[in-house]
Design a protein that fits this description.
single chain, mainly alpha, two-stranded parallel sheet, two-stranded antiparallel ribbon
Length: 397
Amino acid sequence: MTKNKLSIYFLALLSAGMVVSSCDEDDDDKKQDDFDAKIEALALTPKWNNYLQAASEELYEDCVKLYAAWAGPEQLTAEETEIVGGASFYTQLNAPNGYAALVKTPGDNSEYSSATVAIEGTLVQGSVDIAGEVGEQKIGGPNALAKEGKTTQAVLEVESWYSFNSLDDYANNIVSIRNSYFGGMGATTAQSNSLSAFVAEKDAGLNTQLIAAINGALSAINAMNNPFRNNLTGSKVDAAIEACADLAEIFEGQLIPFVQSHANETAYTAILQKYADNIVVVTYADMKNKAKALRDAVRAYVAAPTQNNLNTAADAWRATRIPWEQSESFLYGPADVLGLDPSLDSWPLDQSDIYTILNDNKQLVDDIRSEIGDEAVRGFHTIELLLFKNGQPRVVK
């Protein structure tokens, strides 16, 4: 997730029964309720549906770019090559053969001077970063606000609250770490040429601790009550925050020193090759394929706006969300340099600009696409807003 720097939050608190104590929050609620009524009056109109299609088209192209940036030009279809725009795309990355090639050949490029530097800067540091983000920001941010009595603001801080997908997102972030450490998609034990296998050979006790920390964070998140936006405090939330902090701490405090002190260029290069090809590129390939299915489902809904077609699009959004969240331990490199993280996953949204787009006279999909260049009016969460309400697909009337 990229945190949108705008101070304005989107939409009112929709869940009933949540008490807000301060006068300021009562005023904020009234303003948001008024705005909510205005935007809901536009829900599932032809313009709304065209915005949904425009955002899904943009999301698909961003996913193609992220896959292409890692996989390299030789792996692309003609359609994908047209989307990325040829060799100039790779010039931005200083990676003519794709970013995976840089990760797999440390020492032969200016990005990574050695395999030790590469494995620390990619697989390990990426895991530290996302473990910390899940605990401190994604869970900890709303939790802290709720404990201060800022209930409305706390709920609006929760990522993926329109769809009630928050806890799935957080769990998949930890799966991202697990996949990377074990060297396999969906792996729960060490695969050949994985960092876990290397650590186990040199220090079995540390490997056991690292696995326990990964499983502990995942278990703690899965134990939280769903939806998270209605259960922002309590012992289960505190336990998840602590477990994520423990995971970040052991990766940073023990695994990084281990990697440095057991430097082995041959072994590390083999680990990096497995990681780049079998984790990163595979995850992004899955994501762009599912984003294409989402785009196609949205097109089908816009052409025939039935409840069944909308439900199919909502299911496709959830499916696409999985590989994105499982990619968040490798948001360095292309996702950062090309600005694809904020383009795909900025939060919160910009309520004023979204309403303006929905309410202006431009009706065609291509016209709307020209209006949604700003990261706060596009991406996963704009699509989520347009598809979902109160955790369910919107109701076609």
